[in-house]
Design goal:
The structure is a homodimer of 270-residue chains. Chain A contains eleven helices and ten strands. Chain A is an alpha/beta fold and 270 residues long. Chain A folds into two domains: 150 residues, Rossmann fold (3-Layer(aba) Sandwich), CATH 3.40.50.1860; 112 residues, Rossmann fold (3-Layer(aba) Sandwich), CATH 3.40.50.1860. In chain A, the strands form two sheets. The first copy, chain A, has a six-stranded parallel β-sheet, with helices on both faces. The longest helix of chain A is centred in the first third of the chain and has 17 residues.
């Protein structure tokens, strides 16, 4: 039994979709979430800058005594995961590998689509991992920059959302992809609209869900599960604007953030 | 005569609309542009963080020997201008006051609308300055988060753009505003689509244009104009991703960035 908390970080609020799945699957674990709201978004920034930001957050969470680190941010998972794995004293899980494995399984030899931010898609992290796993599989990928603000504007059921989904996903439909990886933490909120566009027949891979399964497996494999009789506690930290994080966060979680949200300023931001 | 360059800064690429107008109006001045691409966007971040970032950039440009500092970013103009004015040894011009004066003039007693990022609108910087100038004028303001990615996706002439403009601007049309301030550096690229929506009858105030006029006036008033026989040089600095800045920048400028773009890393980002 290991009562230390699990650390989860993202560039901002989006990683709460991952947090939510982990909380659902592991109600007895303590969780610490960090959102780097002073420097959000990571998509579009360079490898060097994203590795630096990710290492700073990992260090902060290690000091809080986490037993496992979850990189809920797709861009940081794409660009900084190997660095974090070699630097950290605790196991590190990103959102990419769980999504890739589930997509390959679901595609069953058919084509796989990947959608995400510009940073995630241009890094080719998903594409290269899929090919490494199954070199015969065809992969289509494209960035969809309008989808994040559509989620944040809460117009997921609008004509604008439908047109944007059509604009971005028509090529995946024409190519008859078998599975589509929602490679951005915001996209699970558009799952219904995307599924309606395809009219079924495409497996939508929600990285948040797949990552939560992997976290559960990892705790078991390393024998670092918490006390099953414990009621898991939550702690939320951000590097800027805790109030607006709580506000948007509640929409992501679909419930109140009773515990509030703490501000942690980077030394360079003091 | 004063041959020192003019410094212009923005959180990213958007301030190039301001740069472009200054270059057009003052072809003989040397210009230095700084885009803080490592920490873009500023909209949504706190006053403290934006003041810190702005001061760092102002210091960098002062070391380059600028004679005048233009804050091309609406969010930084809203939240950090007074701080910069008191800290800097050279005159500082933001994008807000020029836009506000032009809007009040054009409205001629009628209602004024303001659209921008969440940070700019929530700061109430435009609204409060308009009221200070003409307390009897009615002001309507709202953030339009979808418009920046629409410009960056280069779908300014699409159905999505028209629907987003309708969603955001219908209330301004219903209220019969006389002038509308485009309080975000990206929005001038949507001027035609916005003008088509209103069908004329509304004065669209482009802060970039108005700011360039103010820069010209300020140089004259302070007698710090450059040599009129000189062919103005350009220097572009960014804090991350110079290549992609050059690429998007060329779309903003409508011409090639021959001089290239230099990387300046913040000490905290090394």
């Amino acid at each position: 039994m290991d009562t230390r908390p699990i650390g989860i970080f993202d560039s901002g609020v989006g990683g709460l979709t991952v947090y939510k799945e982990i909380r659902r699957l592991l109600p007895h674990e303590d969780l610490i979430y960090f959102g780097d709201t002073a420097r959000v978004p990571y998509g579009g920034k360079s490898v060097k800058v994203i590795q630096k930001y990710s290492s700073e957050i990992a260090r902060f969470l290690e000091i809080q005594g986490v037993k496992l680190l979850v990189v809920a941010c797709n861009t940081a998972s794409a660009l900084a995961l190997n660095r974090l794995k070699s630097d950290c004293s605790v196991p590190v899980i990103g959102v990419i590998d769980p999504g890739v494995r589930a997509a390959v399984r679901a595609a069953n030899g058919g084509k796989i689509g990947v959608i995400g931010t510009r940073g995630t898609i241009n890094s080719e992290a998903y594409q290269s991992r899929i090919i490494r796993l199954r070199s015969d599989i065809e992969v289509l990928a494209r960035p969809c920059p309008l989808l994040v603000p559509i989620v944040e504007e809460n117009i997921i059921d609008s004509e604008i959302a439908r047109l944007a989904i059509h604009m971005y996903l028509q090529e995946f439909k024409s190519a008859s992809v078998s599975s589509l990886i929602l490679a951005c933490t915001h996209y699970p909120l558009l799952k219904k609209a995307i599924s309606d566009f395809f009219g079924g027949g495409v497996a939508l891979i929600d990285s948040a869900e797949e990552t939560a399964f992997e976290v559960k497996e990892m705790l078991k494999a390393r024998r670092i599960q918490g006390d099953e009789n414990h009621h898991g506690k939550d702690e939320f930290y951000v590097s800027d604007c805790p109030e607006s994080f709580s506000e948007i966060g509640e929409a992501f979680l679909g419930r109140s953030m009773n515990s509030g949200c703490f501000l942690h300023s980077w030394q360079s931001d003091d």
